[in-house]
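Researcher: I've been going back and forth with a colleague about how Neuroendocrine convertase 2 might be arranged in three dimensions. Neither of us has a model we trust, so I'd like an independent prediction. The organism is Cloeon dipterum, in case that matters for your notes. Sequence below.
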Amino acid sequence: MLHLVALMTLLAASPLQSADVFTNSFLVRLNGDHGEQAARQVAQRAGFESWGPVLGSNRDFHFVHRALPHARSKRSVPHTRRLKADPMVQFAVQQSGFKRVKRGYNPLKVENLVQLQPHEDPTDPYFPFQWYLKNTGQNGGKPKLDLNVEAAWAQGVTGKNVTTAIMDDGVDYMHPDLKFNYNARASYDFSSNDPFPYPRYTDDWFNSHGTRCAGEVAAARDNKVCGVGVAYDSKIAGIRMLDQPYMTDLIEANSMGHEPNLIDIYSASWGPTDDGKTVDGPRNATMRAIVRGVNEGRNGLGNIYVWASGDGGEDDDCNCDGYAASMWTVSINSAINDGQNAHYDESCSSTLASTFSNGAKDPNTGVATTDLYGKCTTTHSGTSAAAPEAAGVFALALEANPQLTWRDIQHLTVLTSKRNSLYDAKSRFHWTMNGVGLEFNHLFGFGVLDAGAMVALAKQWKTVPARYHCEAGSVTRTLPIPSKKSVVLKIETNACAGTDTQVSYLEHVQAVVTLNSSRRGDVELFLTSPMGTKSMILSKRPNDDDAHDGFTKWPFMTTHTWGEYPQGVWTIEVRFNSQTPQSGFIKEWTLMLHGTRDAPYSDLPVSDPHSKLALVKKAHEERKKI
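Model: Here is an independent structure prediction for Neuroendocrine convertase 2. You can compare it with whatever you and your colleague have in mind.
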């Protein structure tokens, strides 16, 4: 098996430009396991504050200097030297700053609470507006196009004993629809370094984002306030980390590694700038936090990281977002209430499934949820709104079966998500069946989450076999990319057969690519599996004019080959999609296969012979006979 550190180094590599913003935060490593008290003494001697350890370390600490501006264009050499001069300091690095944006936020008019007569269960006044929970055709929607949560609730599953952390701009934990489901022990404010992640109020309500997301997960039921959460008996934690001009690796890492045994699910409705030209992802400490979370969190079962796929629209590609495209996160896209994709939805092969955001007939009819000042709103939207809905569904699954691992959640998502009525409004992407009968779409992944089906299958679930990582082959020669023709490269692999890292049944597949071109946004990449499944792993991005950085060991990921047999010939096609002549070179391609040696699902009973589970089990059984 690849050494974990080496694997992380390979997968975290990115073509990021040199940072030109530096913050007042420093990563300080002591020359021994001296602990927090020693770190505070070192910080005090140098005129800093110690904000505590990084990921629970006894050596690595987050120092802040109040006199330095939060953002400056040059490193502060004197402050760094002052830290390095201390005999207890091994090294000190001033942290670069980078932008992270909330997804789906628009300044919206605040509504007053509408008092409605109880209509049906739940009795919360905003429940009739929560079409994503129960779509009866209200607001021009398509009946039954929803998360099917009532089928989960009818099984007695409501999210009990599960905690979801909202990593955002704070949570109004005094809101009457949230306060009894708030988990204070699991909460923290990493923007202010205190245990009270309350939003910073502004006149434009900009910091309502986290509170709105929290209500989607865990707003209380039948309390005459707002609506109801997907998992209304679950707990939510607030992790305030977005509300500063620039993000740092230390704040992200500590947020994603906070209380991993108290928190089950981390929900993130943010990411790199959705401008169609940014290629960015987690830095080193953040990547370590995520990997540690899936390997060690929840007492070894693994934390679930849910990510909004992005709001860059058809001019962006979420495979250029290293958070949403990570195999350790569950990337969620959105649909509107008549089945179309939303105009802001990005597409990519790493999206696993979808939930909901706006209404179709009235764009202002979004997701009904909690808001600041104890208010309610019906206009929360974007993939920001979609990700917390998925977190709520996963909370239901974890109550149904607390022994589910982070990978079990992904398998359940693939097997129980449904095509339903989802479709691409511009007919660019059609539903396709992969080599084992799983239907997928480049926009929607494997379909819309079905809470009732996921809970039912979770109750009888058997943990999937051990996961292996196989480096299946590389092409390292530099080849030109013609302006009008494609370059097709092939790797024939036995998928590490006969070794300790053999993969026979696929989960995630990565094409780790290094290339540059005269215009990065005109490059398209397609990966085809031995079973014939073709994934567009990079689409044209009209706003990306980069001619310098290209991609350096960037891990383009696809979920479309899930369950397939990986042995055989894999091909990658590189081409320009441009009316004007372009030039470039592909310098390296490494194929990474992730999955199991043994067949998953073999011990699961099949109740519906037409289900995805039945199709995949049949395909696996037939493969064994070959």
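Researcher: What would you highlight for our discussion?
Model: I'd start with this: The domain at 467-596 is CATH 2.60.120.260 (Jelly Rolls). After that, consider the following. The chain has four domains: 20-97, 102-459, 467-596, 602-626.
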